[in-house]
User: Which sequence fits this backbone?
């Protein structure tokens, strides 16, 4: 099979308007992935499926990942020479930068016809609140149908052109997206004999008020 | 002999005087002399306890062990309980065998409401008792006894089929100690009560309500802060 | 012939039916309350705490290091270490609670325990009508003797004894040059369980 | 239909629209056993997720363990000793026997052969469970694999017991097939019911025996060659028609092949450690990165997708559930058949709700 870099080159030549980024993977098996832009995702998916050298006819795993906004503190050091002639001073300058959050979908593609893989493609939303639409790849691979519904349910990504986009696991009245990192689960820790960490904090809310205990 | 325990607040406490009668020792003594003493109550309890028909109702992992208990090796038929009924109308015993999720809880309670009296409930496995290992999950009900009264708890994950049989024996003992007349062990089981347990609705974040406070009043447990 | 497969199948059923009266391979039923399956040595169902000697609480091998508490996947262990009057830790648990209505008998507490203090029980007949009190085990319920451990898991217990004896030998060898009183309070101090007279297993919880 | 369901497949609900008795629309409803496996996996350590994987597909805890151990080992680059790899193959194939035997029982229960086939299947299941119990300590929830090996070594007695079971299993399968395979009623109920075309099967991501019953030769044991499978000789049974009967037959034939693998593995298992000496139980923190590891479970491709951020807990922990994805084509298979056939088709897909909903 071609390497991902070769696929990247071919795709870039074929779809010059698309933005393609190679995402490296530092883990030992180095399953690197290709970040596509949402506008061209559908065409590229069809190409990957039908290209005779690739024939990625089997989309194995579709999953969402939540990347919340992260505050990154960068430390820059600069050496300043003292104009008075003293020893040069090192000045540390800390800059806070807000890395924007996003929701991400990861597709693991294999070829059943040629028995190779995986080719991993990713799609990212604009942010985590209002720009959360991505094109659905269910028309390309049927196997995405339930998995994209699950991602809609648990992460809240809206897939356009999905044939039946409803909540998969939670009930329809449910409003939250529980797999997001900032999800706060409902509090039902009235009886918690072995609480730890977060649960302890929640269980404490159910302990009798200190005044009542003192009486 | 009384049925009140910590999980069941004694609602009719003032009227719950047990019926007096011959004790088990008296009966053994009489039996030794060739006299078989029985009463309607004892006969009814004998019949009820030896033909507990469970509802064919599996939820999760423990359901497989429940099926295993009904198969040749453990053979629940030896206790008169092999008749797994697919319809709640014909069943006496609800074995809650597995994790009750919040999405499933209203259905379980509805099934329990559809079962005719007298009915019994076994919470089989850690998940049914308290949510078990999955209690940290957002969709897991932390114990079915928040909504329906449970007669026997069988801890284990999953309990061996023998443990289920052991639980069934416990339940049979429990049934033999019940009174036909007198107050019901749970208010909703009494003849004057509407006979239905409230079914929670699906809320935006959780079930509404999250428990039935008439049934479920956990003791207060306060842990000191760790040094 | 149409129906021959059906008849063939019924013949198998009939063969099984007849054999079920005399063939031990088809007589699989364990008459449970009277007759019990022989549990394999590795069988595990809920942890217990091992104690050495006769005193259940004083002899606990547990030093309240809280490793099992941190590693327990469903978080069903709760430990508060004991302290003496001066506020120094005595390396004993004051509270050791285990919620068996949550425990899933995964044995990870046993694997991570560096002191061989927590081991797996095999007792499963614990059906109860009481939830809140009966299913929260305290250290008094959990403490079981080393001899009980030996009857449950003889192979594992022998390995544990060898490890403990080795550790004791090492600490003694280290302590010998120093003053005799300065024996460090190692977790394995009350070791040498093999020398203890075997005692009957305590009644199960 | 459902979620309390007279056919014994757990809490699964199908919204069926019928014309007379013919299915014209069928929408499955999931989530009645959604136990938040992935969320819990992200909040606990890598090791602590291992016992939870037992409870995914509670028939096949050994293969779930292996899939997870494999994904983590590949993510962290851990070696596995030879004996452990052999043990894993033995246990995975025993699991396959167990799963397919039970499936045959449940499938026949669905066709109306209530009792007998399931009883026979569970009789054999108990024998395999006894093996699992004496090795790992628990009948169903084995929690046996570790990152870098297996938890306990198998004794010679255990291997002898396994060999005895394997030697007797062909006789059981012969008896079982005599009981049911040639049964005319079964043929009438299952042949040409729920035909799945190869093109649709591939596009819908169907894996495992279901895919192979449609004639697509794709078995990860051959394709990926994970573990020590390339060292064993075995064939991949394929179906011709892709109907319910083929799905049943492919599983029966797969069991025969599994017995062959088990014989080879039990003959060749070497002595040695079962745990990599450098592997550690506590404080396991893989370096940052991500990995998708997969194996061929009895129900299909079970995979774990892990993103590590260098801490003790995985940043993202995802299970690729074969049962859920195999259900994608349930409606396609059931359309035009009667309601009673829908139950059989569901049975032949071989789902376990613990894995569908997680």
Assistant:
């Amino acid at each position: 099979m071609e390497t991902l870099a070769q696929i990247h080159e071919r795709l870039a030549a074929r779809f010059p308007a698309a933005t393609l980024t190679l995402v490296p993977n530092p883990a030992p098996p180095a399953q690197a992935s290709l970040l596509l832009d949402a506008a061209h995702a559908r065409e590229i998916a069809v190409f990957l499926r039908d290209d005779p050298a690739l024939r990625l006819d089997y989309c194995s795993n579709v999953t969402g990942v939540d990347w919340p906004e992260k505050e990154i503190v960068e430390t820059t050091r600069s050496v300043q020479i003292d104009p008075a002639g003293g020893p040069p001073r090192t000045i540390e300058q800390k800059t806070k930068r807000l890395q924007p959050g996003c929701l991400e979908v990861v597709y693991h593609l294999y070829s059943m016809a040629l028995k190779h893989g995986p080719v991993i493609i990713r799609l990212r939303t604009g942010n985590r609140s209002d720009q959360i639409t991505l094109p659905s790849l269910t028309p390309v691979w049927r196997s995405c149908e339930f998995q994209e519904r699950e991602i809609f349910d648990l992460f809240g990504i809206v897939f356009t052109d999905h044939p039946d986009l409803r909540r998969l696991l939670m009930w329809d009245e449910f409003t939250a997206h529980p797999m997001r990192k900032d999800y706060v689960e409902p509090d039902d820790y009235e009886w918690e004999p072995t609480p730890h960490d977060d649960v302890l904090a929640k269980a404490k809310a159910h302990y009798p008020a200190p005044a009542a205990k003192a009486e | 002999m009384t049925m009140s325990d910590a999980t069941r607040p004694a609602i009719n406490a003032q009227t719950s005087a047990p019926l007096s009668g011959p004790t088990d020792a008296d009966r053994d003594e009489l039996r030794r002399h060739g006299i078989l003493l029985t009463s309607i109550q004892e006969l009814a309890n004998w019949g009820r306890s030896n033909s507990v028909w469970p509802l064919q109702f599996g939820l999760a992992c423990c359901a497989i062990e429940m099926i295993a208990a009904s198969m040749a090796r453990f053979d629940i038929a030896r206790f008169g309980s092999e008749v797994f009924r697919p319809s709640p109308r014909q069943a006496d015993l609800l074995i809650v065998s597995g994790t009750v999720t919040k999405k499933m809880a209203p259905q379980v309670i509805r099934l329990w409401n559809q079962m005719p009296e007298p009915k019994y409930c076994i919470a089989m496995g850690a998940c049914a008792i308290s949510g078990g290992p999955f209690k940290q999950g957002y969709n897991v009900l932390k114990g079915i006894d928040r909504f329906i009264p449970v007669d026997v708890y069988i801890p284990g994950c999953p309990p061996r089929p023998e443990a289920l049989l052991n639980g069934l024996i416990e339940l049979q003992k429990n049934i033999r100690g019940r009174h036909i007349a007198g107050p019901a062990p749970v208010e909703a089981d009494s003849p004057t009560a509407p006979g239905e347990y409230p079914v929670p609705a699906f809320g935006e974040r959780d079930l509404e309500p999250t428990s039935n406070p008439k049934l479920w009043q956990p003791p207060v447990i306060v842990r000191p802060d760790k040094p | 012939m149409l129906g021959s497969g059906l008849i063939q199948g019924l013949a198998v059923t009939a063969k099984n039916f007849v054999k079920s009266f005399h063939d031990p391979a088809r007589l699989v039923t364990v008459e449970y309350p009277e007759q019990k399956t022989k549990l394999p040595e590795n069988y595990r169902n809920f942890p217990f705490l091992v104690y050495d000697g006769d005193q259940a609480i004083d002899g606990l091998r547990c030093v309240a290091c809280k490793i099992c508490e941190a590693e327990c996947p469903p978080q069903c262990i709760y430990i508060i270490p004991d302290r003496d009057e001066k506020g120094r830790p005595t390396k004993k648990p004051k509270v050791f609670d285990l919620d068996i209505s949550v425990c899933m008998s995964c044995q990870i507490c046993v694997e991570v325990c560096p002191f061989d203090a927590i081991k797996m029980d095999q007792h499963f007949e614990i059906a109860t009508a009481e939830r809140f009190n009966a299913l929260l085990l305290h250290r008094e319920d959990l403490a079981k003797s080393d001899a009980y451990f030996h009857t449950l898991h003889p192979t594992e217990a022998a390995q544990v004894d060898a490890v403990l004896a080795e550790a004791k030998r090492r600490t003694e060898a280290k302590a010998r040059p120093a003053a005799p009183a300065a024996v460090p309070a190692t977790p394995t101090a009350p070791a040498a369980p093999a020398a203890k007279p075997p005692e009957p297993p305590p009644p199960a919880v | 239909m459902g979620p309390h369901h007279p056919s014994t497949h757990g809490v699964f609900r199908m919204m069926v629209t019928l014309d007379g008795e013919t299915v014209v629309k069928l929408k499955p409803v999931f989530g009645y056993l959604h136990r938040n496996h992935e969320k819990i996996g992200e909040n606990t350590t890598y090791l602590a997720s291992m016992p939870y994987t037992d409870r995914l597909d509670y028939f096949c805890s050994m293969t779930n363990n292996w899939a997870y151990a494999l994904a983590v080992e590949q993510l962290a680059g851990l070696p596995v000793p030879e004996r452990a790899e052999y043990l894993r193959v033995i246990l995975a194939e025993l699991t396959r026997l167990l799963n397919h035997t039970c499936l045959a029982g449940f499938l026949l229960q669905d066709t109306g052969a209530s009792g007998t086939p399931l009883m026979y299947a569970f009789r054999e299941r108990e024998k395999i469970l006894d093996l699992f119990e004496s090795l790992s300590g628990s009948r169903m929830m084995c929690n046996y694999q570790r990152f870098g090996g297996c938890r306990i070594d198998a004794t010679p007695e255990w291997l002898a017991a396994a060999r005895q079971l394997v030697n007797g299993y062909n006789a059981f399968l012969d008896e079982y097939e005599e009981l049911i395979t040639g049964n005319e009623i079964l043929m009438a109920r299952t042949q040409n019911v729920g035909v799945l075309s190869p093109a649709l099967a591939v596009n819908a991501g169907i894996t495992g025996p279901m895919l192979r019953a449609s004639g697509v030769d794709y078995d990860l044991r051959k394709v990926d060659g994970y573990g020590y499978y390339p060292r064993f000789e075995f064939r991949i049974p394929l179906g011709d028609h892709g109907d319910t009967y083929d799905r049943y037959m492919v599983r029966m034939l797969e069991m025969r092949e599994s017995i062959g693998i088990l014989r080879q593995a039990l003959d060749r298992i070497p002595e040695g450690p079962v745990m990599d000496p450098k592997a550690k139980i506590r404080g396991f923190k893989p370096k940052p990165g991500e990995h998708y590891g997969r194996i061929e479970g009895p129900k299909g491709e079970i995979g774990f997708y892990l993103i590590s951020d260098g801490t003790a807990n995985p940043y993202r922990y995802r299970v690729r559930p074969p049962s859920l994805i195999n259900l994608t084509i349930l409606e396609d298979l059931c359309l035009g058949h009667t309601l009673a056939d829908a139950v059989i088709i569901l049975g032949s897909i071989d789902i376990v709700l613990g894995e569908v909903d997680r």
